[in-house]
Each structure stands twice: as C-alpha cells, then as structure tokens.
Amino acid sequence: MIRNSIIGKLWISMVALIVIVLVLLSLGLSGLLEDFYFSQIAEELVGQGIEIARVIGTATDSRQLTVQLDLLTNITNAHIMLVDKSGVVEACDSMMGMSSGAFFGTEDFEKVFQGEIVTKRGYHYHFDAPMLSAAIPIYEGQEINYALTLYRPVAPISKTINSMRWLVVYGAIGAILLASVVSFFLSRTLSRPLVQMNKVATEMAKGNFEHKIKVNSKDEVGLLGTSLNYMSERLKNNISELSHEKKKLENILASMSDGVITLDASGKIILINPPAGNLLMKSMHNFNSGQNFLDSLIPADFKSMFEKVYIEKKMQKKDIEIAGKIISVRMTPLLDERQSLIGVVGILQDVTKDRELEIMRRDFIANVSHELRTPLSLMQGYTEAMLDGMAEDVEKRNKMLSIIHQETLRLKRMVDELLDLSRLQTGNFTLNKQELNFSEILFAIEEKYKPKVENTGIDFKIEIEPDLPPVYADHDRMQQVLINLIENALRHTDKGYISISAYKENEQVCVEVTDTGTGIAPEDLDFIWERFYKADKSRQRSKGGTGLGLAIVQNIVKAHNGKVWVRSEVGKGSTFGFCVPINKSIK
Question: What is the CATH number of the domain that holds 410?
C-alpha cells in the first residue's frame, strides 16, 4: 500500500505539515488582519467624528444640522447621529430615520460624557446588520453636552476580509499541490535507490552477489549504497573463501581411507564422509546430515561410547564388529572455550584385514615353529641315537644320516624362502635381466615335472601361443615363479589335470597355471598373496607348504613391473596367472 511506502509516507508527512502550518497561519493572519482592519476603520471613524464635531458645533438650526449631517454622511460613508446627555437624538442623517434611541448602552454613553471616545462593533437592531460605531464627545466650553455617533456597516469590511481569507485558502491549496508534486519527485528520488538497495539485499540473501547499486550522489543515500556494495563484495569474498575451505575439507574427508563422523551434543549427525557411510551402511540404513545417529539401528557399543564421551569428556577407543567387519572406533569430544561439550568426532577404521593378518602371523609363527620342530626333533633324535651307538652297522648309520640330511635341506629351503621374500619386499636384491623366451623355460619345466606329475595320475599339458615374443627378465626368478605355481597346484590337486598356457596380451606376455584341485574359498582370495597364509589349514604337513611361495611369486612379478591374479571356485580348481611387459627394444 502507498501509505507503507516511502513515497506515501513522505507525501503524507509533507502535505500534513503544510496543511497544519497554513491552517494555523491563515487563522492567525485572518484574526490579525481582521483586528487590524477594524482598528484602522475605527480610527478613521474617530478622526472623521472629531472633524464633524468641530464642523457642526456652530450650527444652531436643526434643519441646517440635518442638511449638514446628510452631506457628511455621503462624504464619510457613515451614518451620523447627535445625542444629548439624556439619550435623546438631537439630529441624524435622513437615511437613518431615527427620532430617538441609541446603539450604545448606558455605560458606554457615561464614558463618552466623561470625555472618552468609545468604539464598538456588533449587531445594530435598527440597521438589522452588524455595524462598526464610534462615539465622540462634543464640548461646549468645558462641558460635554452632546455625543456624536457614527455608524458604518461591517458587511463591506467583512467581504474584503473574506476575500483575503479565500486568498489564503487558495494559496494553501496551491502550496499543497506544489508540495505534493515536490514531495512526490523528492520521495521518488530518495526511494529509487532504496528500492534498488532492497532488491540487491534480497539477491544477497539468496546468495547472488553480482547485483550492484548505482551510486549517483555523495549524500547519505549514496554513502549507504557504497557501503552496501562494499558489504556485498566482502560477503562474496568471505563466502567464496568459506565455500573453498568447506570444499577442501570435504575433499580431504572424502579422500581419507578412514571414516569420519561428527555429531552434536544431542547425537545428530553434522558431517559424515563416504568411508564412514560405507562402513555403517553395510548393516544399517543410509545416514544423512541432521539425522539422529543414536536413534538409528547402530550397535549398543556406539551408544555407550558416545555416553562415556559425553559424561567423561575424554577420548574413548574400542573395536566394534559390524556385519562381519571389525571397526576400530575412536570418539573424541569437541569442547568450546568454557570446556562445555558441543559435539563428538568419531574416527572409524576398518581393521578387519589387519586383525586377520595378525591372526595369520600368529598362525604362521605357530606353523613355522611346528615345521621347524619336526625336522629339528628328527635331527636331534637321530643324532642322539648315533651318539648312543644305536647305529650298529653302516647301512643303518647311513639311513640315519640321510634322514638328517633331508631334514637339513628342508630347513635350509625354508630359511632360503624367508630370506628371498625378505630381500624381495625390502628391495635388497638384484635382477639379472636378459632376453628371455618363456617357451624355452616352459619346455624345460615340462621335461622336469611331467614324469613327476604323471606318476600321481594327473594329466600335465602346456599350451604356448605361436611366435611368443621375448621379454627382458631374470631367467632364474621367472623359473622360480613358475616352479612355485606348479608346486602350489600339485599340493592342492589330487586328480584331473594341471595345464600351463602362455600368450600375448596388450604388449605383455602372460602365463596361467590351471588346476582341477580343491579351489579357494571367496573369503580367502584377498589374502592368498600374503606371506604365511594358508587357505587350506587342515592339510597334512607332507603336502602343505610354508605359505611363502605365492608371496614370493607376487613380489618377483611386481619387481618386473608385472601383475598377478587368481580365479578360483571351491571344488573346481584354480587358475593362477601373471603378466610381464614386453621389452619393445627386443624384436
């Protein structure tokens, strides 16, 4: 509405102010003008009355006096009447037609006959109209015997005063119109930049800081516009910096492998990064900002940790199992400057593999200890037997020495594998690279292993792609890789076949060793390349290895910038493969 706008308020204020001022001014001027005008007319009547009194003082005949009064009436434009002390009209102009009576009261005439000049304004019953009157004493010597009264109609005077009043009214109307026009344009001039400022402020509230105010003046409004433009620019820069920092923080949190979740004091989620969401959503519903974390279907351990942090204001750490995963959770309190809790930060880390690797290491130590104990026990037993003279003949002694020698070789092989793996993982070894043709290595391995494999009733076959290009690799290490893969296949295959295939793919030479053995469970596939890991922990020692062969394979292939993989299905066998890049300089 217009009264709620600056234009309306300014227009109403200016017009109301002008109207009030002009009304008060016109009333004051009207009264002042009227009093001044009547006082001037009264003075004029008194002056004329004094002159008339001097003129008629020499007339003795009433007829002559009436003629004089008629003449003076025409000159002064006033009715003239002569009254004695008793109030009897001695003479008057013929237009009055009065014989006796007076307009003035007794008190007024007493003042006149006491020598005062009296003026009066009011209604006269004889004229039936408002009249302005003046009474002047006439002296005869030192004595006042007559009073001369003059009557002039008020109507012409009032008409003039009314005309002047209407002139003031017209002037006021003109001033109001002029004030309306001026206030309209002035308010438009003031309101236009304010309206523009309102639009800019609204856009700023929406996050749009591109709109600016055009500053065309250097007054207060112009300074306000300049300040608003400056504030808009500063807000834009600050919000941009905050957005940049927020984006940077989000990127940092998103790139973290650990999960991060921030809760307020009531347990509502303030921030959660994707890893934390992935860890928690494995057994629960989605989590979003603003959701109450404690009301969700989380394990009771989470709630108890939050409550402890809330009460004790100290970090809490615990491993919690969620959907088969072991999650290491650290909750730290967020405190303000008054040491009041304002929130909790939780760090979630999937330590399932670490815990499994710890279990694997413990199992390895147990397995290696067991593996070492057997040959050591045998060596100790046979050595003590020989020392005790139990080897009665050369044949028995040689048999004992042979067993001791085999166990010694077994120990040496285990130690060598450990040393090889350690050097491979630490990089403290040298590759003797040369031009290498996998066909030659595979044919040599076929010749070595075919009789051994066929004696077990297992088929052994090799498929080599024609014109297989050479690679630049260490001959002994590649042979070690193939032997470890074949030995691994022999340990886990009781019937069926073992096949080796070699082919070229994407500038690489790839080799696959396939068996029809027991296969590997899906949960073990991620760990078979780890050292000391055994997928089949129930196997006899006569067939089980140390758990180092596949780890050695992986490290040797990686040292040649290659890759390894495995495909397996329980009960149907496994396929282990690796690829080594072709050296393009070798044709």
Answer: 1.10.287.130
User: 86 with 124, same domain?
Assistant: yes
437 and 410 belong to one structural domain? no
Do 229 and 131 share a domain, yes or no? no
The answer as to whether 294 is a domain residue is yes
Q: Is residue 203 part of a domain?
A: no
| pLDDT tens-digit map of 36-79 | 777 877 888 888 888 787 777 655 566 667 677 777 777 777 78
The pairing of beta strand 459-464 with beta strand 497-504? parallel
| Number of C-beta neighbours around residue 347 at 10 A | 17
227 & 330 share domain: no
Give the strands of the sheet with 129-140, arranged side by side.
Answer: 89-92, 79-84, 143-153, 129-140, 118-124
**371 and 480, same domain (yes or no):** no
| 535 and 524 Cβ atoms separated by less than 8 Å | yes
Summarised one tens digit per residue, pLDDT across range 307-339 is: 888 888 888 888 888 777 888 888 888 888 788
The rounded distance, in Å, linking the Cα atoms of 251 and 362 is 38
Phi-psi region of 308 (alpha: psi -120 to 50; beta: other; left: phi over 0): alpha
Q: What is the CB neighbour count within 10 angstroms for residue 485?
A: 24
- Supply the CATH number for residue 475's domain: 3.30.565.10
* Closest by CA position to 446, among listed 459, 430, 432: 459
Q: With a cut of 70, list the residues of the chain below it in pLDDT.
A: 1-7, 57-64, 66, 93-108, 123-129, 155-158, 161, 191, 281-298, 360, 364, 367-368, 370-371, 374, 413, 417-418, 421-429, 531-547, 584-587
Contact 102, 73 (CB under 8 A): no
